[in-house]
Design brief:
Blueprint: H1 7-21, H2 25-32, H3 36-43, H4 51-61, H5 67-72, H6 77-89, H7 101-126, E1 134-138, E2 144-148
Antiparallel strand pairs: 1-2
Length: 154
């Protein structure tokens, strides 16, 4: 991992991201949900960012800095190009899921979530409490009696 991801460089890019946000260190740490002391130590080079901290930063700030740039220092021109293409094409494309690989992945995630929601709805429906409407008792002489519960509901 040390050869692949340089945590010291990620620390510098986190500082760069904080500067780009225009927020104070305290506000930046609050929005990112990283303790201010931890963020300060990362910015001062005393500790390296953990995977958890990097994930929090990516979750909150991927609109300002691409995760690819944060992790690897490689500018992701694809995101900015895609955004400019989308704004220039405007109404030309009404297809929500275009042929981009990321959109296909998003479609798969959404389909999976829809299937999970359907499964959960079925489980909830099956677990709803059932009410007794009547009880039938069969006697040994082949007679029976049916008892209905008087409902106090209006």
């Amino acid at each position: 991992m040390a050869d692949f991801i340089n945590l010291a460089e990620i620390s510098k890019r986190i500082r760069e991201l904080q500067d780009m946000s225009g927020m104070t260190a305290k506000d930046f740490s609050a929005k990112t949900e990283i303790p201010a002391s931890t963020l300060s130590q990362i910015n001062n080079g005393k500790i390296l960012p953990s995977v958890d901290n990097i994930n929090k930063i990516i979750d909150k700030w991927s609109d300002l800095m691409s995760p690819t740039y944060l992790l690897f220092g490689i500018r992701d021109e694809g995101l900015s190009n895609r955004a400019s293409l989308a704004s220039s094409e405007g109404a030309q494309s009404s297809d929500l899921f275009s042929s981009h690989g990321q959109d296909d992945r998003l479609r798969e995630v959404l389909i999976g979530q829809a299937e999970e929601i359907g499964r959960l709805k079925e489980q909830i429906e099956a677990s709803r409490p059932k009410e007794i409407s009547h009880i039938t008792v069969f006697y040994t002489d082949s007679s029976f009696a049916t008892f209905s519960l008087e409902s106090s509901k209006p």
